Every structure is written in structure tokens, then in C-alpha cells.
């Protein structure tokens, strides 16, 4: 898994999706209603086979980390997270799902984040 898996997958999905021209965009509302009805009548997707959320280039953010921190993160993802997901029957997780979980985990643990930042600076809070 690389940091660009999601981008590559999204590009491949866009290439497969037919583009609509302006004449089809101005089609009548019954056509769009039929289209949305067919989407809602479909069976629910298996959460073990579909990502938690769709790719959106608008949601991309840069994350800067030291090489050793990033390597430790990738090792944990490759060795532990992937194993846990496979044990649960998920074999096709996306990088964006891992990154989203990383950010949500950090948001739930702000005190630990602050301690890690202080430790990286060599600041001992006890002093």
C-alpha cells in the first residue's frame, strides 16, 4: 500500500465512468428521478467490500512527519492494521480509510498528542 493508492484508484474509476455532455445534463427531471430511484432500490453494499467513504480530491491534506515516524506508521499499518482488517473479512481497505482513522484517533487523544510533541522537543513537563 502506497500513499497514492487512493488517487490511482480514483483516476481509474473516473476513466471507467462515462462523462455526460451538456445536453444530457439538461435532461428532464423524470430521468434523474428514475436514476436516483434505481440507486436507492439497489441492495446495500457489503461493508467488507466497499470503502467507508468515496474518494474526493477536495478532502486531501498534506501530512508532514519525520521519516522514522512515517516508517513506523507504515509498518504498524502493514503488519497490524491489515491483519486485523483481514481477520474481520476486509481485504481491500483504502489508504484514505487508514489516514482518516489516524486523524480520528489523534483527535480523540489530544493529551497524548501534546505529550508526544513535548517529548519530541525534549521538554519534560515535570520540570
TrEMBL record:
The lineage of its organism: Archaea, Methanobacteriati, Methanobacteriota, Stenosarchaea group, Halobacteria. Residues 19-41 have a biased composition (Low complexity). Residues 1-12 have a biased composition (Acidic residues). InterPro entries: DUF7970 (IPR058276). Residues 1-56 are annotated as: Disordered. This is Uncharacterized protein. It comes from Haladaptatus pallidirubidus.
Amino acid at each position: 500500500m502506497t500513499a497514492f493508492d487512493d488517487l490511482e484508484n480514483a483516476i481509474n474509476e473516473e476513466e471507467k465512468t462515462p462523462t455526460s455532455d451538456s445536453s444530457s445534463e439538461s435532461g428532464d427531471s423524470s430521468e434523474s428521478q428514475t436514476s436516483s430511484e434505481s440507486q436507492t432500490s439497489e441492495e446495500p453494499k457489503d461493508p467488507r467490500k466497499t470503502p467507508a467513504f468515496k474518494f474526493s480530491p477536495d478532502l486531501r491534506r498534506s501530512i508532514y512527519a519525520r521519516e522514522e515516524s512515517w516508517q513506523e506508521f507504515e509498518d504498524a499499518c502493514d503488519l497490524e492494521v491489515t491483519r486485523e482488517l483481514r481477520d474481520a473479512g476486509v481485504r481491500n481497505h483504502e489508504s484514505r480509510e487508514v489516514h482518516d482513522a489516524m486523524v480520528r484517533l489523534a483527535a480523540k487523544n489530544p493529551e497524548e498528542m501534546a505529550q508526544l510533541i513535548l517529548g519530541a522537543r525534549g521538554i519534560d513537563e515535570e520540570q
